[in-house]
Each structure stands twice: as C-alpha cells, then as structure tokens.
C-alpha cells in the first residue's frame, strides 16, 4: 500500500510538471519575454527515478520487517542459522545446546549466571554452583536451575520449559501463582504472553529430544509443530487456516528432512501439504 501511495504521489508530480503555471503579466510583457527567451523542454520524471523511489520504499519496508532479527543478531553472544544446531560450553563448564535459528545472550557476574534466550530454543546442562544460581530468561519468564538439565523454547504465543533431569523453578510476573511449584524430571509448563499457564508431565527424554535430529511430539498443536520444523526449512511454511493450525498431532518427525516432516504431519490429519516453490509450502485441508 505504501508503494502504491508513493506511485500516485509521483504521478501527481509528473502532472504538475507537464502543466506550467500561467503567467499573470500584461500581454506586452509576455510578448517581450517570448521574443527574448528560448523555450525549454518540460522536465519529466525519468523511469529510473521511479524505479529508485520504489526501491527506496521496498528497502524501508524490509528494514521494518527485519528489525527484530537485526536486534537479536546485535545482542546475541551465540546464535545459529536455519537448520543449524550448536553445542556451546560456557565459562563455568555448563553446556548450552542451541536449536536451529536460535540465539542467546550470556551475562555472568560474581553473584549470578544469566542467559537470555533471544529466539528459538536451547537445552541446558548446568554445572552446580550454590553461590551463583543459573537463570535462563525468555521474555518475562525466568527459569532458575536447581541442579538439572532442561529445555527452554520461545514460542509465537509464549514460552515453554521442560525438565529432563533434576528440577527448576519457573517464575513470571504474568502468572506467579500458577508457577509456585517447581518442575521436576518429566514436568513441563507453557506460559502464554496472555498469562495462561498449562502444566503436564511426559517422558523426561522428550525434553531436548530434538538434539538427536528427531522431533518427538505428544498431543501438540499443528501450529507449534510446524513452527519447530520451520526452523529447519529454508523457506516459509504456511498453514491455510487457523482451525487447521489448532488441531493436535502425536508423532516423531525427522528434522533433517523438513519437507518430508511437513508431509507426515499433514497426512496424520488427513490434510495436504503442497510445495508450490522451493521456498514455500502450504498446508491445507484435504
């Protein structure tokens, strides 16, 4: 819409250049001017100027769209690209496994070890240090290690935490009462930005299971599963309807083959996945 508006404005500018303002001087003066001056061709906006203007609008739109990603990149101490995972040994000996298309910021001091999950997902194996608690912050959700291995994921609608070993305390100002009880092995919690909290318990090995390259999900919404697979696909995956995205699925999917994984998810629900280009997959009802 902004590009069209600019195009219309440029069109009006061209029209105004083509129609010079009429002089109000007396006729004799006009004749005198005509006899002593040479007519100049009407100036025009050249096509290349229009192309440059349109390119400028496109560049401005790109900056707006990419600004969040740029901010993450500038803040991150460690990050991964699409379909890339990474194992990082932190200065205290703790290990952070970064999922695909993820980023963390690390800030250690004498009293606290703090990691901010800026995007994506990370699994942590924490070295015990009673004098310096280990915090993982994801938005307004803070996970404090109590001697454990756990997974934290930023979702489009909130944050999820799942424990493989030991226990963690999860706190958030938007859902303080629902998070009063610490999580132990097998427990998981999902905190929505709206303040809604869901808790449950599954096999502990599901927490961080994506590190093997296989995504195991149990009763997950299609939207969440596709979001996870999408970080391993160099393109865009679109779910055609919100109703379809809310349906739930259980299964194991190969993250090293994201296109096959999307087809498998769709097939499980009797839906259809169409790859309309090398960079676009659309999931729709049958």
UniProtKB/TrEMBL annotation:
Low complexity biased stretches: 23-42
InterPro entries xrefs: FecR (IPR006860), Ferrdict_sens_TM (IPR012373)
Disordered as annotated region, ranges: 20-42
Entry superkingdom: Bacteria
Residue ranges occupied by any FecR protein domain in the UniProt entry: 77-168
UniProt cross-references to Pfam families, sorted A to Z: FecR
Coiled coil start-end: none
One GO molecular-function entry: sigma factor antagonist activity
Name of this chain's protein: FecR protein domain-containing protein
Organism for this UniProt entry: Nitrobacter vulgaris
Taxonomic lineage: Bacteria, Pseudomonadati, Pseudomonadota, Alphaproteobacteria, Hyphomicrobiales
């Amino acid at each position: 819409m902004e590009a069209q508006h600019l195009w219309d404005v440029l069109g009006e500018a061209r029209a105004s250049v083509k129609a010079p303002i009429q002089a109000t001087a007396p006729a004799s003066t006009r004749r005198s001017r005509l006899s002593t001056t040479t007519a100049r061709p009407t100036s025009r906006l050249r096509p290349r100027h229009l192309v440059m203007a349109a390119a400028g609008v496109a560049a401005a739109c790109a900056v707006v769209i990419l600004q969040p990603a740029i901010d993450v990149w500038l803040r991150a101490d460690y990050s991964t690209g699409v379909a890339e995972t990474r194992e990082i040994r932190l200065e205290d000996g703790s290990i952070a496994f970064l999922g695909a298309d993820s980023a963390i910021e690390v800030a250690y001091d004498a009293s606290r070890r703090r990691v901010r999950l800026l995007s994506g997902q990370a699994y942590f194996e924490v070295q015990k240090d009673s004098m310096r608690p280990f915090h993982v912050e994801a938005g307004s959700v803070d996970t404090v290690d109590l001697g454990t291995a756990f997974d934290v994921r930023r979702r489009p609608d909130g944050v999820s935490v799942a424990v493989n070993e030991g226990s963690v305390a999860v706190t958030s100002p938007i859902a303080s009462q629902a998070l009063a009880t610490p999580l132990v092995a097998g427990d998981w919690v999902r905190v929505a930005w709206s303040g809604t909290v869901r808790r449950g318990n599954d096999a502990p090995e599901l927490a961080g299971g994506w590190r093997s390259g296989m995504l195991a999900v149990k009763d997950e919404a299609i939207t969440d599963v596709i979001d996870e697979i999408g970080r391993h696909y160099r393109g865009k995956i679109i779910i055609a309807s919100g109703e379809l995205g809310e349906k739930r699925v259980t299964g194991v999917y190969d993250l090293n083959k994201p296109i096959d994984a999307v087809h498998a998810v769709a097939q499980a629900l009797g839906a259809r996945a169409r790859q309309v280009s090398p960079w676009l997959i659309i999931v729709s009802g049958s």
